[in-house]
Amino acid sequence: MSIKPAVAIVKKLESPHQSEPFTKFLPLSAEMKNEAFAAVAEIFDAAGGKALLKSSGDVYIKPNAIDSKPYTHTRVEVVEAVIRYWRENGARNIYLFENCTQSNFTRMVFALTGYSKVCKKYGVKEVYLDEEKNEVVNFKNDKMKNETKNDYTETAFRIPKFVADNLIARASENLYINLPKLKTHSMAGITLGVKNQWAFPQPADRRADHNYNLAHKLADMMGHIRPDFTLIEGVEGTIYGHYPVTAFAEQCVVPFKVLIGSTNVLAADLCGLRLFGLTPTDAHHIKIALDRGYGNGVESMADVDVIGDIGSPDQPYPWDLYPQFPSDVTIIKGTERTCREGCQNNPLTLLQILAYDYGGRSGFTIVMGKGYKKETIDAIQGRVLVVGKCAIKEAGEALTSRLGKKNVYFSGHCNDLCATTNALCHLMKVNPLVMAPMPFLKSIKLLLQAKINGTQARIPFFFAHKFKVV
Hints:
- The chain is of the alpha/beta class.
- It has helices at about 30-45, 75-90, 105-115, 115-120, 160-170, 215-225, 250, 265-275, 285-290, 340-355, 375-380, 390-405, 415-430, 440-450, and strands spanning about 5-10, 60-65, 95-100, 125-130, 135-140, 155-160, 175-180, 180-185, 190, 230-240, 255, 260, 305, 330-335, 365-370, 385, 410.
- Strands 1, 2, 3, 4, 7, 8, 9, 10, 11, 12 and 13 form an 11-stranded mixed β-sheet that branches. A 4-stranded parallel β-sheet has the order 14-15-16-17, with helices on both faces. A two-stranded antiparallel sheet has the order 5-6.
- Helix 6 (about 215-225) crosses helix 9.
- The longest helix is centred in the first third of the chain and has 18 residues, at about 30-45.
- It starts with 5 loop residues before the first strand and ends in an 18-residue tail after the last helix.
């Protein structure tokens, strides 16, 4: 029998999950937490244990911590389990590092998720990548002959020197553990191990080409950096995208109760796809990475030796947004092109959250994409948000001249979450601070610390609900 190129280790958790609805995000029970700790240890032991350490003895752990919102981040209990394992198994230094999503800053996310508390408990060094100095590198497009794409708007990005020095220049010396959350993604199909590396471009550099080219840029990151080990936390998994509306959690959260580990990130991601009943054609960045040979011999699920029961649903879970939006928000999409990877699902996700989690007002119009009939634009009344450079170029001037600057809001680039947040918070009268459940003075203190340390995070205006950001 031939040996397959990669092994994936699957551990199912048997302890009962919470009995209360998922609309209430709760810590794991003591029973499940202990089982998760044991399962993490078993996965690492099966993969080689201490032998995974490299010459430096240092361990670099990258969770998925885009936000502190429920079910969007790697559970703190599993982060702690990984840290404790390596603290007990010979690691010299341990680093927990992340660069959260646009419209946020990592220092606050670490505080809200409990990561900072765990780091202090185990003597782990917290690294906020948005506060690090950078060096400029190019997106590495090792495209295959049959791979089609349009030219990038931006071909370079700023990468934190911490990443460049420790995960690229010294990759042979340091153990890099990728620790994503099991999530579908409304713009990329899934967000697992490969997409977890999208934190490496600084926030402002993620805005360009966050469109039909997104899958290619996600795959490009694999040309620079590949994890030594990927451990997918699937205590719960999200469907209908990666940023579930808490009010819809019963529909959007599934208690998979699973952990998946592999030294091959694409093998781990293929297992995650199978859990959702999806294939690489549903997550184009995975297919591109496989076609480019980034799987080190893994071309499909047939090349993965799965230890444990991965299972597969009878039908695929949905990955696009849950189909419920405020009835009095008019959404106008261009007929020529509207990219779900950017100007479509970026603002629609935030619209759902502000409307259903924070009681935001509605009664306005959103224009996105390119290709409109003149009469459609001329018929718009009241306040309007124009999203994306295509829509701004085609309809922005006409709307501003007719409706006035005070009624027209813009969010440029293909995906500018900060600008979209400023606009929607003002339109819907939602205080941005309510999305960070922390006392105001503590929020200000963390922000000042981040600013002093040079954060490059694009943070919404604290009073965007009161004042229109131009």
